[in-house]
Amino acid sequence: MKLLVILCCFTVIFGSTGYLVFWYYFDYKDGDLPDVLALRDYKFNLTTIVRDDGGEIIDKFKVEDRVYISFHSVPVAVLLATVSAEDKNFFEGRLIYGIDFTGVVRAAFKNIIAGKVIAGGSTISQQTAKLIWLNNEKTFKRKFKEARLAYRMEKYLSDELIFEIYINLVYFGHGKYGIVSASEFYFSKQPSELTFDEAAMLAGLIKWPYQFSPIVNKKIATSRRNMILSRMMNNGFIKYGEYIALTEKPVVLSIKSIDPKAPYLSNFFMDELHRLGYSKVVNQGLNVKTSINSSFQLIASEALSKGLKAYDKRHEKRLVLYNIFSEYKLESIEDFKSESWNGELGIESTVDGLVIEVDSSFVVLKIGNETATITAKSLPNIQNGIADFKRVFKVGDVVMVKITGVNASNDFIVEIVQPEAQGAVVILEVTTGAIKAVVGGRDFKVSKYNRAMQAERQPGSAFKPFVYGAYFEKYPDKDLESHVLDTPICFKTGNPKKPKWCPKNYEEKSLPPFMGSIPIKTAIARSRNVAAVHAAKEVGINNVVDLARSMGIASDLPRYLPTAIGAADVKVIDMANAYSTLFRQGIYKPYWFINSITDRNGSTKNLETIEEKQALSTESANKILGAMRWVVLAGTARSASKELPFATAGKTGTTNNFTDAWFVGGSPKYVVAVWIGFDRKSIPLVSRESYFKETGGSVALPIFIEIMKEIYKIRPPDLFPEEIENIILEKNEDK
To answer: What is the CA radius of gyration of the chain?
Structure first.
């Protein structure tokens, strides 16, 4: 009896002490713990999703790829699979909040056998506490703090809230957080569409996302899935027959990896969101609806790629970039200084080489202060070699080479590199000013530079509509049949040592150098430079520049007459926008690409622009549009009228030395701007090897035609207003 009394006393003492210790750490002491009640307003790192005009995802900005789902939207299959995998008693009530005694004993036994902490018997609440506040350190101190947090979470928060946080928080591998992103990535489904076996596979990833990944090892993933299904059966969630049928199903994935559909616009989406006050775009969970049309984006990308490949084919044997004597009028070798020579010339760098000596079997190059020799070994991409180097190279030629080494004489060892032309395309919707597609180069993975919205290039004759727009504004009684002069004219340059500037027309075999007094429609259709200069001089270059800026050209335009024929740098996006003003009968609207933004609280901000102004009169705009219809019907873009079975209008543009080629035009619904050139402005599109004149009509216009064909393949053509067609059809005796 004494022993029994003593045992009871010790039991009471130890029990009381244990309870007091438990009460102190789990109920009373909380100064060293975060406030679990804050979880009621927990802010996840959520993915900002960018969608096209049809709601399809085209881009994501994220720290963690996560889309929020509420508890009430979690499907039964996901809920049952998750608790079976991680904590079968989560919704059943526990002896002590947050702690699974069976799991703790099992984990303790494993730890004793292993001689170290390898398991923890964590409940869903403990895992949630660890994910939010703790780390993965396997120590008793961390586990004890985790248990205290889990206890307080289950005591003060609902099971539904804890599970909601957990299922949105956990990592499912391959950069996917939360059940929504995981479901979309692995199966291209929303969680509500998941079958029981698919939900079991996803639940099986939570413990070890990489090891159990079906992408890494489908056999192991299938085994893990089947184990979860077995637990679901043992828990009474599915019947035996269902279990057998589900385990016999193969794991069929439908991996959905979102590559940006408009990659060249990604930075602009981000910048615009920042400008609008969304400072943490990558974790705010915004839903951004844009004006981009994914079909148009693909059409533009494929058309540009096709056009550039055709150009590459025409110039596949190109070796020489240009000659400093014939094309840039330099007088000596010493006058040439390449930008690529700035800085240290290292192995694997690509630089310019200047030909200073030519022999039948080799060429000597100057590269900075060093030299290099081109032999047959320097031409790895040239089939059949070169029989006589003197027939290919001349002193003063500039070639692009990659430095591959240094020989015993300290001369560079080089290989000739063929330059790649670049391009850009913008598609705008005329009525709204919405950007429907932007392609900023031939390959975003190689170069992320957006030539459509960042590069400034000379538009050549594509600038002339602004000249004649200003002309018609000053002389409203004039029309397309009114005459302008195409006669020789010269101007002083302001530097008495330099010769006068005497503009010339592009040489066409079928036309004389000067045509005298000609109708404006002929001047525009034939792209007569001298006539445009005469018109700009008469109307005043300031009026031309002011009109161009009011129509959408944001670049700084020099106020001198060469600007009239495109000798000023502009952006492709601005050209598209300014032309859309013409197609809008003189009404300017700023371009835009974000329609609306919805934040995580459901608040929506609509951003479609409503700003507009009459930049030039309807009458003047219609006359220019009529002239650009004439360019397509009988001018430098007449191949468009042969290949497109509907009305289009536009203007070609080609710069001096053929460094830039343009076509800007469209239908009443869409304006398309196409630019082709090299990133380095000194490299012309023409090459000595092909003798092919790469004008706007030959290299940019085919891309425009391809785009318009695809856009109108499944939609009826849009018609120009009757007054525009009448301008063309009233007097067509010289068509």
So the answer is: 36
Phi and psi of 364, rounded to 5°?
A: -100, 130
Say if residue 70's pLDDT is above 90.
yes
User: Could you identify the residue written with the tokens 């003060």?
Assistant: 156
C-alpha span between 379 and 375 (Å, rounded): 7
| Integer Cα distance of 408 and 321 in angstroms | 29
- Kind of pairing between the strands at 483-486 and 516-519: antiparallel
The pair of three-digit structure tokens given for residue 261, joined into one six-digit string:
């559909």
502-530 pLDDT per residue, tens: 999 987 777 889 999 999 999 999 999 99
Instruction: Indicate whether 120 pLDDT > 70.
Output: no
> What is the distance between the alpha carbons of residues 678 and 696, in angstroms, rounded to a whole number?
14
Ramachandran angles phi, psi of 588, nearest 5°? -90, 135
Query: Cα–Cα distances in Å, from 146 out to 153, 468, 626, 666?
Result: 10, 76, 76, 65
Q: What is the pLDDT of residues 645-700, one digit of tens each?
A: 999 999 999 998 899 999 999 999 999 999 999 999 989 999 887 777 899 999 99
pLDDT tens figures, 603-620: 999 887 678 999 999 999
Cα(212)–Cα(249) distance, integer angstroms: 17
CA neighbor of 648 nearest in space, from 637, 636, 662 = 637
CA-wise closest residue to 44 among 172, 159, 167, 150: 167
Q: Give residue 635's Cα distance to chain centre.
A: 35
The pLDDT score that the predictor gives to residue 631 is 96
DSSP, collapsed to helix, strand or coil, labels residue 272 as helix
Residue type, 708: M
**pTM assigned to the model:** 0.88
CB atoms within 10 A of CB 486: 25
C-alpha closest to that of 674 among 663, 684, 682: 663
